[in-house]
Amino acid sequence: MNMKESAQHIYHVPVMCEEVCRLLVTRPDGVYVDCTYGGGGHSMAILKRLSPKGKLICIEKDLDSPVHLIDDPRVFPIRGDFRHVANYLEFLGLGKATGILADLGLSWHQLDTVERGFSFRREGALDMRIHKHQELSAQVFLAQTSEEELEYVLRQYGELPHSRQVARRIIQQRNQRPLFTSTDLKDALEGLTLRGSHEKLLACVFQAIRIHVNGELEALRKLLQSVPEILEPEGRVAIISYHSLEDRLVKNFFRTGDFEGKVRSDAYGRVLRPLEPLMPELIRPTEEEKAQNSRARSARLRVAIKPVSAYDESPGN
Ligand SMILES: C[S@@+](CC[C@H](N)C(=O)[O-])C[C@H]1O[C@@H](n2cnc3c(N)ncnc32)[C@H](O)[C@@H]1O
Predict the structure, then answer these.
(1) What is the pLDDT of residue 194?
(2) Which of 9, 102, 110, 286 is most exposed, with minimal Cβ within 10 Å?
(3) Ligand 1: nearest atom to the Cα of 81
(4) Are residue 181 and residue 234 in the same domain, yes or no?
């Protein structure tokens, strides 16, 4: 039985766990933050590398996650949103962080819980909320949105080239009868003939709505902006992303400190950037890991370090 076949019994299988720990945990006595606890796979692996003095703050937004059940005096569980990571660290009074991890996206548990409506492959309520008590669900959004707003969401967060046609079709269908389930949304798009596969279209539409409903890119931007302030000098940040929208923000921010990738220099031509990529390229799962865990296929890991000085000393760089 491979990991996918046994998915029902597993909360989540962490991606690139060895690589993350090797690159992130540089000091066993340090303070680490796992921004996306999920089922705790990465957290447990990090904990194994910490000394009795090490600390691990585990943040998770989803009420289903067992983050509050960890029984280890080195762990500080927080049910919250990682966009507030700087506040949590200040509140706990543990000082600056030695390493910060964010493994973005969804857990297997979330994807496999049909009622949560994250997957278009099985029928479930059009919910898609990571935090169950949040007001905006996919259903509420689709019931209230305008064609213009929906087109914007599909273009920005689904990178759909035919966002206008798709938005128009969804709004037409919604005006005839409300969209309650993932199948209703799928049916609304039935027969829409556009270039590219229908499966890809559904994946992009579901992704776009999910990102919008949960404010996922805003949360990532806030997290990245907090990182230089909360990391200790030579501290590291590791981000695993699963689609190009997230990865672009991470790549640009690590290289330039700007989400668009705009380089800022001081009067001496020294590049001003709060972080430096630890290596020029991203890391992907090995073929072996992808064969074991097909959900790891799109994962990309980037790691950056906070330089002792915020300046890049290389002339003209
Ligand atoms: C890919 S899973 C992480 C899995 C985890 N690394 C493990 O080993 O089990 C991503 C997790 O991040 C959580 N999450 C997403 N956005 C969040 C946010 N803004 N704040 C806190 N947690 C978030 C999701 O609920 C999900 O549990």
Answers:
(1) 73
(2) 9
(3) 20
(4) no
61 alpha carbon – ligand 1 mean position (Å): 7
Q: C-alpha dihedral over 94, 272, 22, 216, to 10 degrees?
A: 70
Whole-model pTM? 0.93
Domain boundary among 214, 238, 262: 214
Instruction: Place 316 in a pLDDT band, splitting at 50, 70 and 90.
Output: very low
**286 lies in some domain:** yes
Q: Report residue 164: phi and psi, to 5°.
A: -65, -45
Which of 214, 239, 256 finishes a domain?
214
Q: Would you give the distance in Å from CA 107 to the centre of its chain?
A: 10
pLDDT at 313 over 80: no
Nearest to 250 by CA among 286, 283, 272: 283
Is 105 near ligand 1, meaning CB less than 6 Å away? yes
Write the CATH number for 129: 1.10.150.170
Among 11, 73, 19, 71, smallest CA distance to 240 is for: 19
Return the best residue to mutate from 116, 130, 218 for the ligand 1 pocket (most ligand atoms within 8 A of CB): 130
> Is the CB of residue 65 below 6 angstroms from any atom belonging to ligand 1?
yes
Contact residues for 63 (Cβ-Cβ < 8 A; gap 6+): 79, 131, 132, 133
User: Using CA positions, which residue lies closest to atom 24 of ligand 1?
Assistant: 106
**H-only helix segments in 159-197:** 163-176, 182-188
Please state the domain count of the chain.
Answer: 2
Residue nearest (by alpha carbon) to ligand 1 atom 14: 36
